[in-house]
């Protein structure tokens, strides 16, 4: 059994995509980030960066004590190694998968996340910031679109690189991006969206928090107003 400490955000969805694809036995432990659950001592014990997702694997491969893992990219690598799936077969395939996973972790996710913040959550519009992150998101979409020319998936076969990137493309309209401008990315996106595991992963997320639920000012304060001193 795997405990998944989760909230339905792009980073949270990465992990449910993997778990649904593999059929691993797991239990969702909601971490309501708008209510501050990510700052509770029990959660910080497994996720010291006070960010979800995190997992606790009660049946690790070595048969020892439960293993906890935080950071969504590290969780995907851990689960891929545990199951022997979605990471590639050869060392070269694994390197290819890893570099695109790191591309998402270091580029697509952070830049799209800033796009979301200044477009949707900032208390007042800051045109320079909005323009900066909309353009950088657009550039990254172009990188992914070029990569997907002649490929069904980022590394040829469906992998944790695809699972990491897909949830950050889901809010493309909020990011002010038009998928029609990126035909190979759009083809890839539609193929992943139609997978039964993707449908089920997002259904579970909607049960926990509907995607159209508004964010209150108090929730914004909890999410965006923390410092080292305040936690």
TrEMBL record:
Residues of the GST C-terminal domain: 90-211
InterPro entries the record matches: Glutathione-S-Trfase_C-like, Glutathione-S-Trfase_C_sf, Glutathione_S-Trfase, Glutathione_S-Trfase_N, GST_C, Thioredoxin-like_sf
Occurrences of domain GST N-terminal (ranges): 1-87
Domain of life: Bacteria
Signal peptide as annotated in the record: none
Family: Belongs to the GST superfamily.
Name of the protein this chain belongs to: GST-like protein
Annotated source species: Hephaestia caeni
Organism lineage string: Bacteria, Pseudomonadati, Pseudomonadota, Alphaproteobacteria, Sphingomonadales
